[in-house]
Design a protein that fits this description.
The complex is a heterodimer of chains A (253) and B (272).
Chain A (H helix, E strand, L loop, with lengths): L2 H25 L9 H46 L1 H16 L2 H11 L4 H26 L3 H9 L4 H38 L5 H11 L3 H30 L8
Helix pairs in contact in A: 2-3, 2-5, 2-7, 2-8, 2-9, 3-5, 4-5, 4-7, 5-7, 7-8, 7-9, 8-9
Chain B lengths: L10 E14 L2 E14 L3 E5 L6 H9 L6 E6 L2 E2 L7 E5 L10 H5 L1 H5 L6 H14 L15 H13 L5 E5 L7 H17 L3 E5 L3 H7 L2 E5 L6 E6 L13 H17 L11
Parallel strand pairs in B: 3-8, 3-9, 6-7, 7-8
Antiparallel strand pairs in B: 1-2, 1-4, 4-5, 9-10
The chains are: A mainly alpha (253), B alpha/beta (272).
Chain lengths: 253, 272
């Protein structure tokens, strides 16, 4: 990582904060209309312990939901990638399922598994984020050049060998592309559960209590904290991608 | 006139009266209808014919990836009933595993075919082949750093690394520019000298077939049968041989046969 790669994004963020502050100042908005970055500092200062606790709850449940999405999404993608019949059968089901707004699923899940808050939250995070993974893995597998298959099959390789040696590594770039989308989706899922069906956990709950107590700067502070967690998780995926699928990157020199 | 070899044993590859049809929604689509090809050990046979006449189906039959509806394919006198490790393949699209180095790509077949070679010996063999095709110094490069011609050379090494009895080349030079193609033709001769193989070359290029092969088989249009067999009687494997009157005669013979195969010429049928 070069200095440039750190300085440029940091500078962009500072410029963003300055513009935000200036906008609120120029428009003369009170903090219940729109809090400014300078309002956030006291909010973080006052509630930093809560931010740590709730932030952790949101983070681990998002990550577990995401891991579940990776496992199940990859499995569904493999089934659809290898079998045309299964692809034809599952595609409309998946698209239909994905089209249902997850906000409407939250109360249903909350009723189904009353009190199982962690489970419910993870379930929603999973449901909202597995779709891109399943689609990308299935496309990656089904677009495997027939030449690969012919070369290995003519040598007597089994279907399993072809999968491990070629299909799986070849799908990794598509997989990571989808995972980047899924990371942010999983956060949306976690917070949907935390806000729509409050159970006193996670940053969603902190947001909710800010709303109840008319503590508007706190609400904005939660949004920024969520954005921060999203950035962290996104770059974890980027780092993993560099390790496992770095070969797919065209060298720029 | 179609030549027929009676003995199975004298030839490494024997394709006899092969018929094959693909099953499609609108009924069976016959692609091969009476194919006879014999390649002696160490021979190099080129197969030419109008496009879509089932040439690629032929490579799959030899590799044991497909089985004929009728007729037989023999390798070393034994009927082909399953894929054999004794076949090496190179295609027009020189697919490489982009996440592996060139060397590791070439070594891929050795990971699947049972081999007595130690790890070091395997690597030495791959390095030797890469040097043979002029890719010395590219062993640790990624495939994306190679040009089209270089990829095709590497894919040739991969097809040969496990010392197959049969090398199947499915239009391997089709997508290359004319100069690179001639380069690779010459490399093919160098390789065959050092690493003798029995070859089947599918091609659209009549000059290529005469320069590389010792036997050229012309297939008729779909469904394909063996229409004509030309023996290339020359020891001259210099690229200059393409410009001798003898070659010009062979080219014109082949061209006429292709025209018959395409149905553009009044069926002179079996005229040799």
């Amino acid at each position: 990582m070069t200095l440039r790669q750190i300085v440029v994004p940091t500078a962009a963020m500072i410029v963003f904060l300055i513009l935000w502050e200036a906008l609120v100042w120029v428009m003369g908005w009170p903090n219940y209309k729109m809090a400014s970055p300078s309002d956030l500092v006291p909010a973080y200062d006052r509630y930093w312990a809560l931010f740590l606790i709730y932030g952790w709850q949101t983070l681990w449940r998002t990550v577990v939901g995401l891991l579940l999405a990776v496992v199940v999404g990859t499995a569904i993608g493999m089934v659809m990638g290898f079998s045309r019949t299964m692809r034809d059968a599952l595609y409309p089901l998946l698209v239909g399922f994905n089209a249902i707004p997850k906000a409407t699923v939250v109360p249903i899940v909350a009723l189904m598994f009353v009190g199982a808050h962690d489970f419910n939250t993870i379930l929603i995070a999973f449901m909202i984020s597995f779709f891109p993974i399943a689609v990308s893995v299935s496309i990656g597998l089904s677009t495997l050049e027939p030449e690969y298959r012919d070369i290995l099959k003519s040598l007597g390789a089994s279907q399993t060998t072809i999968f491990w040696k070629i299909a799986l590594p070849k799908t990794l770039p598509e997989f990571f592309g989808a995972l980047k989308v899924s990371v942010t989706l999983a956060f949306i899922g976690t917070n949907l559960m935390e806000i729509v069906s409050p159970h006193g956990r996670g940053l969603g709950h902190l947001f909710d209590s800010g709303k109840t107590n008319s503590d508007y700067p706190l609400m904005f502070a939660v949004l920024i904290a969520l954005g921060f967690l999203g950035i962290v998780l996104y770059y974890v995926v980027v780092a993993l991608e560099k390790i496992f699928a770095g070969w797919a990157e065209r060298s720029t020199d | 006139m179609v030549k027929r070899y009676e003995s199975v044993m004298e030839n490494l590859i024997d394709i006899r009266g092969v018929r094959h049809a693909y099953k499609t929604a609108s009924g069976p689509l016959p692609v091969l209808d009476g194919l006879d090809i014999s390649v002696p050990e160490g021979g190099f046979t080129a197969v030419v014919g109008p496009s879509g006449c089932g040439k690629s189906t032929l490579t799959k039959l030899i590799a044991g990836l497909l089985f004929p509806d009728d007729g037989d394919v023999f390798l070393q006198g034994k009927k082909v009933t399953s894929p054999r490790a004794t076949v090496g393949m190179a295609f027009q699209n020189p697919v490489m595993l982009e996440w592996r180095t060139v060397l590791k790509n070439v070594m891929l077949p050795l990971e699947i075919v049972p081999t007595q070679l130690s790890r070091t010996e395997q690597e030495d063999r791959a390095r030797y082949l890469l040097a043979l095709v002029g890719l010395e110094g590219f062993e640790d490069k990624r495939p994306s750093e190679l040009s089209g011609g270089m990829r095709q050379r590497a894919s040739l090494c991969r097809a040969l690394v496990h010392q197959p009895d049969v090398l199947i080349l499915d239009e391997p030079f089709g997508a290359l520019d004319a100069f690179t193609r001639e380069d690779l033709w010459q490399i093919m001769h160098q390789v065959k000298e050092k690493e003798p193989f029995t070859g089947v070359l599918i091609t659209h290029d009549l000059r290529e077939s005469i320069y590389l092969a010792d036997q050229v088989v012309v297939l008729s249009g779909r469904p394909a049968r063996t229409q004509f067999v030309l023996d290339v009687k020359t020891d001259n494997r210099d690229i200059e041989m393409l410009y001798t009157p003898q070659t010009a005669d062979m080219l014109s013979t082949l061209r006429k046969q292709i025209e018959i195969a395409q149905g553009r010429s009044p069926a002179a049928g079996d005229a040799t």
